[in-house]
UniProtKB/TrEMBL annotation:
It comes from the Bacteria. Transmembrane segments: none annotated. Residues 8-80 form the Transcription regulator PadR N-terminal domain. Signal peptide: none annotated. PANTHER family: PADR-FAMILY TRANSCRIPTIONAL REGULATOR. Residues 92-112 are annotated as: Disordered. It comes from Actinomycetospora endophytica. This is PadR family transcriptional regulator.
Length: 112
């Protein structure tokens, strides 16, 4: 699963959101590391709808513009849990390997 897809699903796990809300949430969730472009976002949303992982929730007119809200489906939540668990396990392995390589500080006192 791509980082963008993971962030979109994560953003929608809390509540339905419209496109700009998803963009802001993805940036916040990634601590500014990922900035979704509009074309990327709507392409991802179309794919996620086609895959049954999200679905349209409602449409609203806000300041004369149409906002379409999306919500995550049960299948989307299941995929998010699976991917989150996979990423967590991968991170754990990576950190364990890094810790194993680092020299450990010497313990114990020195007597002169």
């Amino acid at each position: 699963m791509s980082e963008q897809t993971f962030l979109v699903l994560t953003a929608l796990a809390d509540e339905p959101m419209h496109g700009y809300g998803i963009v802001r949430a993805a940036e916040e969730l990634s601590e500014g590391q990922v900035r979704l472009r509009v074309g990327t976002l709507y392409g991802a949303l179309d794919r996620l709808v086609a895959d049954g992982l999200i679905e349209p929730d409602r449409e609203e007119i806000h300041q004369g513009r149409l906002r379409r809200y999306y919500r995550i489906t049960d299948a989307g939540l299941s995929e998010l849990v699976t991917e989150g668990s996979r990423r967590e396990a991968s991170a754990r392995v990576a950190l364990d390997r890094v810790r194993a390589r680092r020299p450990r500080p010497e313990t114990g006192g020195s007597t002169a």
